[in-house]
Amino acid sequence: MPAIRVDNPVTVRIKRFASSADLQEYARTMTLRYRPGLSVLFRALWQDRWAHALFDGLYPAFVSLARFGLENHAFTPVAVMSNYTSSLDCKKTESQALGLSGVGIYTGTACQMEEAFRLFGGLGKKHQELVRVNELWEQLRSASASLLFDHLVVGSAHMGEYASYLSLPGTKDSSVAEETSAYGRDIVGEFADRLYHAHGLEPPPPRTSSKPAKQVLRVIITENKRMTAGEIAAMKELAKAGVGGAGTETGSHSLNISFIDWSAVQPFRNQLKLLQDTDIMVTGIGTALFYSAFLPYGSVCVNTGWKDAMSIPTFGEEVLGMSNHRSKFVYMPLNRIREGVSKADVEHQIQRAASLILAGFSLPLQNAEENLSIFGRIIHDLGQHSDASKKGLQGREQVDGGFLCHQRPTGQTSLSDLVFERLVDAKNLLFQLPGPMGLAEACQMDVDKLRQLKKKYRLPEALGASGATCECVICESCGLSTV
Fold this sequence. Notes:
Blueprint: H1 20-28, E1 32-43, H2 50-67, E2 76-80, H3 93-96, H4 107-121, E3 131-132, H5 133-142, E4 146-154, H6 180-183, H7 187-198, E5 216-222, H8 229-241, E6 246-248, E7 251-260, H9 268-275, E8 280-283, E9 299-303, E10 306-307, E11 313-314, H10 319-322, E12 327-331, H11 334-339, H12 343-359, H13 374-385, H14 387-394, H15 415-419, H16 439-442, H17 447-456, H18 459-462
Parallel strand pairs: 1-2, 1-4, 2-3, 5-7, 5-8, 8-9, 9-12
Antiparallel strand pairs: 6-7, 10-11
Helix pairs in contact: 2-4, 4-7, 13-14, 13-17
């Protein structure tokens, strides 16, 4: 497929000097605003949605710092942000508690995230400054001044969440981790630890085994906007009734189960405090899955998945599992997702997760591939066996850096979209396509090899569709909803 070029020209004014003496003379006439220490310039899109604010904004900035060995340094955040909170003091609890505005902005969450940026930069120090680029620009214009940074880090080279391949950027097998030995570290864990410290909380302590010293395992089942009223009622009943003990050779442990509506756990610091001691998190796709990045050592995340209106199942952002060195990820069987997940299905997965913990898996995880679902394993193997596919999935062959390859047709970053060879949703594109296009084409994938791997991993059987006959094995155009 020919590369698709996205033109976004920027005008740069250049002033040239005949000599260094002329340059020095010109500099003496300038009005300078000096910013000492380390500053980090980043863009925080949609800062009223916490997962976007942290993983599209702050996390890429943190990875940039790590590439320079500056991940433990205090810095001043210089952020490009929407003007959601201009009239508020986000340090105040009442500002962070505000809800949805009349124009659809989660104002309180925006304040919480701006505070997270500020505290993260200052390593928790209350006096740390947060600089808004739009306000800084106005100050410079009104004073006819120029800005001199002591030390400025800027740019992330497509290290945002949605430009990833199999894992979050900066981690093993991510789209930018060419030197896997250098970036195969627990960068997500380091990010989580710093965020805990920034909010005045001790990060979960390191462990070498998942076997717990405590007798009661804490389980949280998190609400998801995709749940029906019946599913919510069933999960609340499960939390109330419990699932009994989980017995192993180490003895019997009990489970303390809670059903969590994150909107009722405010502000963000209280959410971190809850996660600090969680052993098992049961969650669906989307924003709720990003809480898995802050789970303690030796925990298990149960991904219950979701099916769309076409009955096509997905596990959403499972790149989070591949990026996590501290937790195991388990997945609801695909046939159960297609038929409809029941209370008994969730109960079984909780018991499975408890057994994994009590059996004692080693930490940190040495084989992150274990945290991939069947979709992730197929795409992982495709990248291993087809260099062209790997480069296409990483966006290394596209002028747009792979943006088109990660359009999230079903509404989330999903490896299942690649496996099912779904069509790109042209309605949500920032630029025009030359015509209808599937993700396999957009990502320049080896389709023949992909279909071989679907057979190898017995995808039709996993879906409960072993009798299906499609040239593509299983794909969107084949009509999965009718299988």
